[in-house]
Amino acid sequence: MIVQWIRKCWAWKWDFIRKYPIWSMWLAWIEGIVIGLLIYHFFFADVWVVMLSPAEQFAEEVTFH
Fold first, then answer.
1. Geometric angle at alpha carbon 28, from 45 and 6, rounded to 5°
2. In whole angstroms, what is the distance from residue 60 CA to residue 51 CA?
3. pLDDT at 39 > cutoff 70
4. Where would you find the membrane-spanning parts of this chain (predicted)?
5. Whole-model pTM?
6. Number of structural domains found in the chain
């Protein structure tokens, strides 16, 4: 049952791409941006705090904590 559902979804996806190639391109582009922002947010957001000057780090600690 699950395999049939996966096959049906897979077929729908390819039918959609064949029928609407431009919409598919834009949706894929937006999906890539969203995934990139999520990766940045969860894995690289703290890197910028380390790169701040000591005065900026102090301002961050006072302001946000």
1. 105
2. 12
3. yes
4. 20-43
5. 0.56
6. 1
Q: What tokens appear for 40 in the block? A: 């940045």
Looking at the domain assignment, is residue 63 inside a domain?
yes
The mean pLDDT value of the chain amounts to: 84
Q: What is the pLDDT of residue 63?
A: 63
Within a domain: 64: yes
The pLDDT of residue 41 is 82
The residue segments making up the domain with residue 35 are 24-65
Structure tokens at 51: 């790169």
Residues in the chain: 65
CA–centroid distance for 59 within its chain: 29
Over range 23-42, report the average pLDDT: 94
